[in-house]
Amino acid sequence: MEYNFHLPVLCQKTIELLDIHSDAICIDMTLGRGGHSSKILEKIPNGFLYACDKDLQAIEYSQNYLSKIASNFKLYHLPFSKMISQLKEEGIKGADVILFDIGVSSPQFDDPSRGFSYRYDAKLDMRMNLEQQLTARDVVNNYSEEQLRHIIAYYGEDPFAGKIAHQIVLERTKKPIETTFELVDIIKKSLPSFVLIKKGHPAKQTFQAIRYEVNSEKQELEEGLKKAVEFLNLGGRCGIITFNSLEDKIVKDLFKSYTSYPSINRNLPPLLNQEKLKYALVNRKPIVASQEELKQNPRSEPAKLRLIERIGE
């Protein structure tokens, strides 16, 4: 069975705010099944689209899908942290539009064999790039209790990280933890009853944390976004859609560093004679899904869109 349906989040608003011209050079850093890329491609008959993804299945599907729309695109099987370096090697000097849609795509979540979801019983995997070696099973069975506590607390923002990590280590002494449901049961054993009856799945934060570790998502985001912002042409815009508070804080802080002057004391004005800022925020508050979109696609609920524009050389 193929799992290729993906409804791109905040698509209409994203395309509108990216201000895409017909001859724009565009980069989609998170190709997926081509949802956003297809809309970009429709707007650039005289431009060009470069797009990348860690997931070879996504590349193969989107190559066929986008070819039905136009031919002015090129796809790369790369993590987005490597994309700008690759384009520079090919002589590309800058981009007018860069888009990130962070996280796991619907086809990855909905395919039980990929091991991303706590809703299906499957082998622990969670690799976006199936060619890499490290899997969720490796993390769960081989990381120390302190390492597990740290990633669950930091990447998953779970206040019960210590208890979950301890229970994982305890259970794996009996036998290796092999499947998603085994891990879900261990997480549930670690949590108090008042947490288990709350809205939302009790394993969500731990699964997110392990997925982040397996795919180096925080490091990817920090490195890839910085390179992308600095690759923008004058007047170019970079938009990024995030799905949790950790991602949004990274983006917000990075954008702030490019669009405001540092101050030695928060109560004092910025220093005089500083260089003119090269970037400006397109939106000060993040764009979120409308009620209409939430009805059509509940997965859009946590999505936040932020954009930055290059205003100076």
Please describe what this structure looks like.
- The protein is an alpha/beta fold.
- Helices cover 42% and strands 14% of the residues.
- The chain has 14 helices and seven strands.
- A seven-stranded mixed sheet has the order 3-2-1-4-5-7-6, with helices on both faces.
- Strand 1 (25-28), helix 2 (35-42) and strand 2 (48-53) form a beta-alpha-beta unit.
- Helix 12 packs parallel to helix 13 (245-259).
- It is globular.
- The termini are far apart.
- The model has no long low-confidence stretch (mean pLDDT 92).
Short note summarizing the structure:
With 313 residues, the protein is an alpha/beta fold. It has helices spanning 11-18, 35-42, 56-67, 83-89, 106-110, 136-142, 145-154, 161-172, 180-190, 193-196, 204-215, 217-230, 245-259, 291-296, and strands at 25-28, 48-53, 73-77, 95-101, 232-242, 279-281, 304-310. It has 14 helices and seven strands.
Number of helical segments?
A: 14
SSE order, one letter for each helix or strand: HEHEHEHEHHHHHHHHEHEHE
The helix fraction, in percent, is 40-55%
Q: Which class do the helix and strand fractions yield?
A: alpha/beta
Largest sheet: 7 strands, mixed
- Taking all Cα atoms into account, the compactness measure Rg is 21 Å
Number of strands: 7
Pick out the low-confidence regions.
none
**Oligomeric state of the chains in view:** single chain
Strand order, main sheet: write it out.
3-2-1-4-5-7-6
Shape by Cα distribution: globular
Give the integer mean of the pLDDT values.
92
Q: Indicate the proportion of strand residues.
A: 5-15%
Q: Distance between termini? A: 50 Å
